[in-house]
Predict the 3D structure of the following.
Amino acid sequence: MIASYQALSQNRVNAALDGLFTAPSPELDRLYDAMRYSVMNGGKRVRPLLAYAACEALGGVAEDANGAACAVELIHAYSLVHDDLPAMDDDDLRRGQPTTHKAFDEACAILAGDGLQSMAFSALLDPNLSSRDAETRLAMVHALAQAAGPAGMVGGQAIDLGSVGVKLDQTALEYMHRHKTGALIEASVRLGALASGRADPIRLEALQVYARAVGLAFQVQDDILDVESDTATLGKRQGADIARDKPTYPALLGLAAAKDYAVELRDQALHALSAFDEAAEPLRQLARYIVERRN
């Protein structure tokens, strides 16, 4: 089921994203080419899938979450462009292709990331992508800003950069990853729920518990794959975290215990959805996929 749902959702969000990268003047062609390259060169689209699935879990129509799906993918893409820069992780491969600063240049990559970040908020306010009322859109913008900024993803990246060669305990490691990776995943679920027009406090709370669990599970599985997978499968350099002496779950807990922890987090996510009906099945399938994926 998840493969067909993933393909359908990927096609939906890709069609919506594709319309955002037409340069308004020839002078901006290269910048827009770099932004398009950074977003449209593959990717699992996990965050858009979560947005669509959360919307549908509350009885909404998937297309109502197009703005949310585009916004979280644009923020994710911008973060990857900047993370790959020489001043940060200095990576030359992303999704099996040269990173944006390699395909273009460093200055263009920085500007492309900046452009994608602002474009994400425009997507939430675009009536062609999001049909919700002004109050709901404002709540969505606020949620994304909190998740993407220094209280969320950017803060987590700052902690990550400061943790190279440092031995973190599990509490500190989880604090970092709940910000760096988890915050945007939590926002994906929340934005999708708000896009449904049917969000209520009780079900939003349950979805937040679900999202916190899958957000951390995603990072634990990423750390496992950095040990077990290979560069061709991952589409990025395998063993990069080990080479940079970054704190990871396998290094802290051991590989077998890290796998057990990913399964525990998956089960926490599934339990959070126990009061939801079959409309939440894509969310359940995504929780399983996140800890079973191989890239």
In short: The two ends are 18 Å apart (CA to CA).
